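In this supplementary section we document a worked example of the pipeline. Step one takes a protein sequence of length 219 as its only input; no multiple sequence alignment statistics are reported here. Step two produces a three-dimensional model, which step three serialises into structure tokens for compact storage. The input and output of this example are shown verbatim.
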Amino acid sequence: MSSLEEYEKKLQNLTDNQLYQEAKTSIHLFAFTNYNNKKKIELIYSECAKRNIKIYEKALNDAYLSVPFENDGFKQNETINIQRIDFMSQSEIIQFINIIKKSQKLGQFDIASASDLNIYQLLGIPKEFLMIFKITGNSMIDEGIEDGDYVIADRRVQITNNKIVVLEYLNELFIKRIVIEKGVIKLCSANEKIKPFEIKNRNDIKILAYVKNHIKFMQ
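The serialised model returned by step three reads:
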């Protein structure tokens, strides 16, 4: 059996969520590194098309929103890894809830209600508005948001000034506190080593969601 045949068999044995993660990682490598295995990308696309083409579409979208970059003095060495509950199986949702059960209770986040499987009710955000991210990096460490934490965000964005938000800036995703003073927009980290960054053109940013809570995994 060739390596491609083995890879195709591996894809067939993945859950939808695992297939989404595999697709996102491979598309990211193909687009932004020297990885050039087009055949594997084609096999991933084929497997997604057999099950649910949205798996590939979401992976493609998310792969392009996870690349750290340096632009106009705005330096970042972190990523926000999008997590999608919509592709999780029941067992994977249970596993995610178990992570929540082991987490630190924050604010109004009621871990006790994790006993049922209505994860949207648990997180307090309807499915169509829920976004979950896994954080890499420590730019928001002084807010208690550290490397490896999960961020729970609500797409029903209203007043955003002085709120911690997930935003898209020049096609990249970031988590920052957005501060608006006299019409000037600043993206503020919660790390004394990182200075606030002033947005010169407000059309360069798109606020995707505000951070409602975060899950700190406790070993």
